[in-house]
Amino acid sequence: MDKYLQIENAEMVFDTKKGRFVALTDVNLSVKQGEFIALIGHSGCGKSTLLNLVAGLLDASSGVLLLGDKEIKGPGPERAVVFQNHSLLPWLTCFGNVYLAVERVFGGRETKKQLRQRTQAALELVGLAHAMHKHPHEISGGMKQRVGIARALAMEPKVLLMDEPFGALDALTRAGLQDELMRIVHETRATVLMVTHDVDEAVLLSDRIVMMTNGPAATIGEVLPVTLPRPRDRLALADNTHYHNLRSRVLEFLYQRQLKHAA
Amino acid sequence: MSAVTIDDNNLDKIMNQPETVAAPTIEAPPAKPRRTPFLQTERGKALTEALAKALRAALPPLIGIALFILLWQIVAASGGENGLPGPAKTWQSAQALFADPFYDNGPNDKGIGWNILHSLYRVGAGFGLAALVGIPLGFMIGRFRFLAGMSAPIISLLRPVSPLAWLPIGLYVFKETEPASLWVIFISSIWPIILNTAAGVARVPQDYLNVARVLNLSEWKIFTRILFPSVLPHLMTGIRLSIGVAWLVIVAAEMLTGGTGLGFWVWDEWNNLNVEHIIIAIFIVGFTGLLLEQGLVLLARRFSYE
Q1: Is the predicted pLDDT of residue A262 greater than 70, yes or no?
Q2: CB-nearest partner of A83 from B207, B217, B229
Q3: Is A160 within 8 Å of A187 (Cβ atoms)?
Q4: For residue B225, what is the domain's CATH number?
């Protein structure tokens, strides 16, 4: 399926106290099933807004968003979101947080035992079987983010939406989770849309990098295909000239063509 | 004592002389190492430290209480014959009072225990009704902005009304004192519950609600899994304030309605000019209020996450 997720002429206008604010305009993008897309741009370029449009948390002012030929209207579990700040419910254990999602998606047609198995499998996938019965405040930031990923994956979504999922983590933890995400995406063949501001992360993880121009009235400036073979290894890529070329292309876009003047 | 010979006759005498000290028993080479004295062991040290800490913590309040009693004594003594009863006299009176707290000599003459229980019952019943109405109302006001707009002027207008101003309305509507005093408790303790619950609902983090939206949870699941646990700490604050207000109000209400309860008792003892009992009543009211508050604080601590 070449056009699994389609965004056509999407525009997002916010009514603010200072009047109309055009955040996004004329956004067109088609995503194939199983593709990993990174959205990159300076802060305030509307990349999170675009993600929220696909999630259905925001309604586009005009234009059409389609997922598998169905129009996106409002949020739904087939478009699972991994939030930047993990957004786990503090009164539920890790298991409880994932189970809430599993129960919602599969509760109608599966037994409790099957639901519990799904929950456990999702936590095992992110390597958290041992911390299943801990509460979010008892685990580290990286572990919380993994639970967030497990929760999203357990829903078996058509598209996995990630809003700067590793932005709040230290570099080492982030690298570990990126490697794990690559493995998981490979195993589950998930379609992923990920917002990031990290150039290395975008090149390492994605099949295409969607680079956004600066706001207001931001739009897609350039789409860069990342033709590095998979599986990718971050250490091997350090000496790969193609990797460095891709990286330079993104940096050039961000820091020469879309240089953000200090306000 | 060099020239003393020891024989059977003078042995007792020698042993009983004050200078004679029993020779220290020399222990045979110890079979096991001598035990260190308890206070030098790890546990002993920890115990002494804990005791010292407890003493340091207890000292300021104890000094405070002692000064308070001293001040009371001075005020009482300075009044002469018709002055306030002092601490000692009040203490004696309290002992007599609490010797038989549950006697019942018919209406208007019941033991202090009954009066306390009656007041507590009224607070419990009035507050219970307020919670029954106020908690759902608070949730709805917090969840639906329209409802919040509707109720805001009414709540702002009625909340500052002195609780006792509601008593005549209660007496007029219910024609009896018992439901009237419950009504006063109800109406004065409902505001903190409504307002704190509504504030809690309005402050549920958007992140949690986004999770609910992405999962497409039903209203019931949103309520049980997200709203209620998230609001619970605010709700507990509301309940604590509410019971505090109810306990303040009940004494005043019972003074007016009469029959039973601590408030009635205070007024009755005023009519009897038994000032010791009035002072005792003040301590009982304060102490019971303190226990209620502390109990609820402990309960609230169980419901805080993080």
Answers
A1: no
A2: B207
A3: no
A4: 1.10.3720.10
Q: Phi/psi class of residue B261: alpha, beta or left (left: φ > 0; alpha: ψ in -120 to 50)? A: left
Residues A158 and A79 sit within 8 Å (Cβ to Cβ):
yes
Cross-chain residue pair B214–A79, CB shorter than 8 Å: yes
What's the sign of the alpha-carbon dihedral A174, A179, A183, A186? positive
CB atoms B210 and A85 under 8 Å: no
Q: Which tops the pLDDT comparison, A69 or B66?
A: B66
Residues of chain B in contact with residue A105, where contact means CB-CB under 8 angstroms, are 215
* Residue type at A46 in one-letter notation: G
Closest chain A residue to B208, measured at CA: A87
B154 touches chain A (CB under 8 A): no
Instruction: Give the gap in angstroms from C-alpha A124 to the nearest C-alpha of chain B.
Output: 21
Number of domains in chain B: 1
Q: Distance between CA atoms of A3 and A139, rounded to whole angstroms?
A: 40
The boundaries of the domain holding residue B194 are: 111-305
Digit-coded pLDDT (tens) for A33-50: 999 999 998 887 888 899
Kindly report, residue by residue over A12-26, the tens digit of the pLDDT.
Answer: 999 888 888 889 999
Q: Specify if B124 maps to a domain.
A: yes
Q: Mapping DSSP to helix (H, G, I), strand (E, B) and coil, where does residue A195 land?
A: strand
Give a yes or no: residue B255 inside a domain: yes
Domain assignment present for B282: yes
Q: CA of A91: which chain B residue's CA is closest?
A: B305
Alpha helices by DSSP H, chain A: 47-55, 94-106, 112-125, 141-154, 171-188, 199-205, 234-237, 241-252
What's the pTM? 0.74
Sorting pLDDT into bands at 50, 70 and 90, what band is B2? very low
- What pLDDT score does A188 carry? 84
Query: Whole-angstrom Cα distance, residue B246 to residue B244?
Result: 5
Helix ranges (H only) for chain B are 8-16, 42-78, 87-99, 112-143, 145-158, 167-174, 177-202, 206-215, 219-221, 228-257, 262-271, 275-302
Chain segment A104-140, per-residue pLDDT in tens: 999 888 999 999 999 999 998 888 889 999 999 999 9
* pLDDT tens, residue by residue, A185-196: 888 888 999 999
Assign A255 a pLDDT band (cuts: 50, 70, 90). Answer: confident
DSSP result, B184-248: HHHHHHHHHHHHHHHHHHHTS-HHHHHHHHHHT--HHHIIIIIIHHHHHHHHHHHHHHHHHHHHH
Q: What's the average model confidence in pLDDT over B108-130?
A: 90
Tokens 């994956």 sit on residue: A153
Judged against a pLDDT cut of 60, whether residue B3 lies above it is answered with no
How far apart CA B224 and CA B245 sit, in angstroms, is 29
Q: Which residue from B minimizes the CA distance to A139?
A: B306
Domain annotation covers residue B64: no
